Amino acid sequence: MFRSRSWFGASWGRPKNPHSLERLKYLHNILCKNTTVSENNRGTLVESLRCIAEILIWGDQNDSSVFDFFLEKNMLSYFLKIMRQKCGGSSYVCVQLLQTLNILFENIRNETSLYYLLSNNHVNSIIVHKFDFSDEEVMAYYISFLKTLSLKLNNHTIHFFYNEHTKDFPLYTEAIKFFNHSESMVRIAVRTLTLNVYRVQDASMLRFIRDRTAAPYFSNLVWFIGKHILELNACVRNDAEHFSSHQSQQKLDDLVAEHLDHLHYINDILCLNIPDLNDVLTEHLLHKLFVPLYIYSLTSESTRRATSSSPYNRDHIQSIEAITRNLEAILKGKNTDTSPARMTFPRHRMETEDECKPSVSGVVSLFLLSQVFLIITHGPIVHALAWIILQSDLSVFEVGATKILEMYISNAKTNVKLEFSKPQLSLEKALETTSSERDYTTPEYSGPKHFGDDLDNTDQSSCDLDPELVSTSLPSTSHISESSSIDHDSTEDLVTQVQSMKSISAVTVKENMPDSPLPDSGIESSSSKSNEFNNITDEEKQKMLGVTSSTSNERVITIESIIDKENKEIEKRPFLKTIFDSLDCSENDYKALFALCLLFALINNKGVNTELLDTLLCPEEEILCSTSECGSNTPVSGSSSNVENEATSSEGKTDVSSPPDRRPLQSFNALLISKLMAIANLSCKTASKVRLVTLELSVTLMRVAMCGTKGASARYAPDVNALRARAASLARNFYKCDDIFLDMFEDEYCETSKRPLNVEWLCMDAAILLPPTRTPMSGIAFAKRLPSGEMERARRAIRTFFLIRDLYLKLTGKPETQLPLTNPAPFVQVGESLDLNDSDLISCDIIQKDGTWQHRFLAVDSIEIILVEPDKQRLGWGVAKLVGSLQDLEIQGDKEDPRCLHLTIHKPRVGASGALPRTVLLRAKFKFDDHIRSMAAKQRLTKGRTKSRQKKMQQIGRLLEVSGMCAPALAPRHRPLFARPALAALAARRSTGGEDDTERRLRRPSAHMLKDGIVVYRERTTSRESSVSRSSSAQGSREGSPRARSEDIPMEEIKRNAAALAVASTPVISQTQHSTSTPLQKTISSSEETSFISSEPQRPKRKGLVETI
Amino acid sequence: MAYAYLFKYIIIGDTGVGKSCLLLQFTDKRFQPVHDLTIGVEFGARMITIDGKQIKLQIWDTAGQEAFRSITRSYYRGAAGALLVYDITRRDTFNHLTTWLEDARQHSNSNMVIMLIGNKSDLESRREVKKEEGEAFAREHGLVFMETSAKTAANVEEAFINTAKEIYEKIQEGVFDINNEANGIKIGPQHSTAGGASGAGGAGAGGLKRRGAAVCNEHWYETYSMPDL
After folding, report:
1. At what angle do helices A184-198 and A246-271 cross, to 10 degrees?
2. Is the pTM of this model over 0.90?
């Protein structure tokens, strides 16, 4: 047929210009002639369809007549016809069709063209067409097509897709059928599409979505999240039991990331602020996932224990179950008496456990709840969850569900006043109108029970038929199918739909049915309650004693009594108790980390009512104060230690009569702080099992928890100070006049200040779900595992000290003055002109690796190494070309050439950059005139390096309160080797007294007495440095020089220091007074022995440091 | 069409830098670049050959979804390669690269190969970003760099294929876990059906072949059990 074009002459010939109306006419003709797809014309058709896309877009941009022709000839209908043919190669053609449509809708700019394209129902017919979705290419193009369309949605175009009269919205309903497709990109496209739909904010369309699709879609979504969680739990359990393989860890990573994706998706929906949708989604999330799975699992651990242990425990557990049930009833707005509800989360068939309800381990549930609170900020959800965790207690039984419901609602009401008005209004509405809200779901759900008579069947269907559940329960898309004459499925569609709808309702009803009568909760609770009061653990009391032992006697009693009371109270809050119990790190901090994450997330969530958080953040007295201020008729008044019995019992009664929001909140602030203190205390022990991340989180929380108190600093400062002392003593174990310790100290400081803890990122890391490890080979960051080896133990001790010291400073409001370690003077700037008259300069050639060669003069200050070039303008002056810190200088001799030295110069760490990692400025070979000058340079550098390090070590010593170092700091004195006019004023300003300047001027001549280095080396001096430097202690090498003596420290300073600190073991002093400093040396060397470094192998780079002449 | 591997790519960058045009230019050579026609697409797939192996590239444009955090997150995670595109005639698109890169690094799996692309190299007269700047940025962040033109098709082919080569090398090195589809890499049907490949030779039975593969793969099975009503 196609071949026949030549018979008709040129008019049917292929127009030369591919972009023209003629060409489109020609293509139209091809479509007309090839209505049936066959092997032969497939290629032609595909190419025509492709060209059509090209021409149409060209036309849209250049020539409107092209589009007119396309619409006039109704060419989209040809597309449909081709699509509907069940032909062998149709997927090939379908892919092309979909690509053409994609291009069309993606590139079209002309609004009217778009409207025309959408105006007849062809696009909807294409949407509902059942392509061969098993072909991944078809699937991908199809879902991209839907997504592209969704990006075109707005208040006008929505009406082309959503038919208000027929209640039809194929674009949406077809897409969500694929929400759980195996291909991640497809799932993402579906989520994108739904979000694009929701955001259109067309009232009628949203009503349709709420009434007809929200319940099935969200319930399925929630169900799959739950399924995912159970998989995640299994993964964690496997890993915990066996050695975790790389692959399973990757799987865990994926599952965690997937859960986060879901939560973010849910949050994105909630953030669109569509009240109706949010209500449904909130309800589903709370009822089907968060409460029955996440919250319930908080107590699941104890469920297992219950079978074996005391009757108290069993009662306790049963009451917890009852609480969960009651809560659910509350959330549903139903009274437990009339319709006892049970957990509706479908049973998960687990091979191992004989549990009747699915649950995850406590660790996983804490982790998941943390994620929920970190991501979701929708008031009604997070507030309800927070309320359950913090407030639900055993009084639920006494008061009865109805009263609790009232209280819950009124709590929510107060919430409205306090914060987010819009979402919380919707919660109120949701709770008040639950019955009417139910109306839209019940018709769908209230069919007769067709199947699912036995429970297994129910599980089966809910486990495996979910995609069907979605697809079949969705409203009919048959309207479009009916309009098309070819499709005969439409009536069948309807029939199946009705049937499947019934089956779903059967399933859901079944799920909602209780399979066992509710236990008589009232009796249970009273019995368990009496047990609890006798059951307060003394362990905790002792711990508290340990914490507060250092404080004054009087206060011990009061704090203790508060904690004591809170300990009793918390027995009645099962969920909060679980969290608090998890904070116990005596064995390890596996669970504690998650409990801390949860508390952190809870406290920092913007959707949670601040009043509710007072439970954790406000101390007892203040809550009582505020409540007695606002509600004068509440009977609770006293703050004596045994008031809580009366308080709770009276609470129960008064709540019935008085407004429930008057009920004073029980505070657990003191208990929380004591638990956090216990963690901090534990981490100050040498063989602690507390990871750094756990400590950092507890310290952060402690700061927040102490903020609520007015006199917090007064109350807790002594404790925190004691803690700080403990941390200092831990770090002191590793303190040593040693290269490594200083480097480590500064590096760790840099680490801590550079990366403050980000809990959200922490909770993205699946690795923390595995039990804490020690080995760095696990690839887990240092802070998230336990230290391995002496080096890491030292690092850990240093960081612990930083964290706790920071807490202390923040609490007491003291400014940070000692960190980062300061240099005694500012560094010279590169390019600065220096007066070098009278200074020691050593001429040298600098040869870099790439062979570049420079001539410079080397000058050494007390803290810096400076390479200068003579100043051309002024004789005796030089321009600084490179300034490096002496402290970090690496010096190495050259084996072949004694005239050479290898130096690695690092950038000085000053001011803000003090917290940055070290950066290498120059690594090169320095060639001196002869071996003597080389040696002189080496000694000068080595000594300068040691000295500048000693200064810093003294600073650390003061920080860590090393004995003999806690005396007042030596006044930082800077005596430059050369005058720096630019900096002189600055230095004067920085120094404590004005006399400093004059002092310096006086001292200068003496500092440069010696100009000839040669004399220096003849004189033998046993230097203190030899014992400081670990490589040389055995050799007893000689270093130093008379010049050093005169330059190091001015005489008057030495005298003053020696007088002031008779025992002070500052190396500076011993260096100058070496003959008398033998006892001092001993004390130092003994401390060296205890240090870890002495047992470590020497660092190779230091080898050339000390040589005997 | 059988393939050894399928790599999923995403294209990221500011709006208007020519992402979708690049995508169409690469995935469908039939669309010849013409001066008076700007045409792009959000999704495309194409088969290429590396090391004698058929590799299918699936490229997803992420345009228009920036408003939703959940979406960007998931996209990054599901991709094995990313093309980070800027427009050499618009300085601001270059300045935003850091933000894009941070996002990508935060959300993607650490092995994702990122290629930096300076697009519209045909508009030399309006150039605002020097080639050297692009090179420096790429060097600094460890990316592969290339300047392309979707208009003239210059370097487009190379950009996509070089990225694929790098991914392929990573697979050979064992860096990528190819059994984990969340990485954006999928093994072709004939890989998973090691023994059953005999029937796959039949050319005419396109649909049948796929069904055969599906049975072997649990994930596929889930999809297929979708009711056709």
Report:
1. 10
2. no
